[in-house]
Amino acid sequence: MRAAAAALALLALAACDSAPKVAFADASITLPDDPLDLPEGPGRDAVLENCAACHSPSTMLQQPKVSREKWESIVGKMRTLYKAPVDEAAVPAIVDYMVHVQEARPAS
Ligand code: HEC
């Protein structure tokens, strides 16, 4: 019985030895899209002036696609909850820009 077990163990070791050698090859990887700049478009300046102090472009751009109303409420939340000094007059331009950028973005 012990001999059989030992033989089995040897067999297992032998099997390991004959396993195919692994060959590593160069591979390219694609990093997640991390936009470092806001795309051109109407309202871009308003976003830079009012939002970029706290957020990198990727934080604002990599959001689930939401409605205009939702963007209005997000900008409202920035102002009331986070005390972002967002110029009231710039809000429509900011909302337009965020909606425009999300619509222009290829579906992911
Ligand atoms: C005073 C700093 C400040 C400014 C200015 C600011 N935010 Fe925010 N924002 C925050 C904080 C704090 C959070 C919550 C924590 C986080 O997600 O990083 C946040 C979260 C967000 C989020 C994540 C989604 C959510 O609902 O929480 C989005 C999108 C966003 N901000 C967009 C904007 C836009 C657009 C502007 C310009 C109108 C803006 N922020 C201006 C502080 C700011």
The CATH topology of the domain at 36-108 corresponds to Cytochrome Bc1 Complex, Chain D, domain 2
Q: Provide the low-confidence segments as ranges.
A: none
Task: Give, in order, the helices and strands.
Answer: HHHHH
| Main structural class | mainly alpha
Classified in CATH, the superfamily of the domain at 36-108 is Cytochrome c-like domain
- For the termini, the CA-CA separation is 60 Å
Measured on Cα atoms, how large is the radius of gyration? Answer: 28 Å
Principal-axes shape call: elongated
Sheet-strand content, in percent, reads under 5%
The number of distinct β-strands equals: 0
At the first level of CATH, the class of the domain at 36-108 is Mainly Alpha
The level of helicity is 40-55%
Task: Give a brief description.
The chain has 108 residues and is an all-alpha fold.
Descriptive tags:
elongated; 108 residues; Cytochrome Bc1 Complex, Chain D, domain 2
Compile the SSE list and pairings.
Blueprint: H1 2-17, H2 44-51, H3 57-61, H4 68-80, H5 91-104
The chain binds heme C.
